[in-house]
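Annex B. Sample input.
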Amino acid sequence: MHESTQPIDRDTLLIEANNLIRGHEDYLSGMVATSVTQKNGVLVFGGEYFLDEQGLPTPKSTAVFNMFKYLAHTLSEKYHLQK
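Annex B, continued. Sample output.
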């Protein structure tokens, strides 16, 4: 099933993901991946989404969503989570 990807543990993957975030041109202060799961071969990242007081998205929320989407696309091609 995972013939073309390398196994990786969550902590190591989050370190790599956060390095990619900090080095990305769309990085915003406070943007960080704090969790990762795998669903149907896709790595799904989570973290702070910068919601307002009513729990609604802000312009920063879109940037974070796009960054996590970038991480999923980039890192799912390389890795799968170790069981």
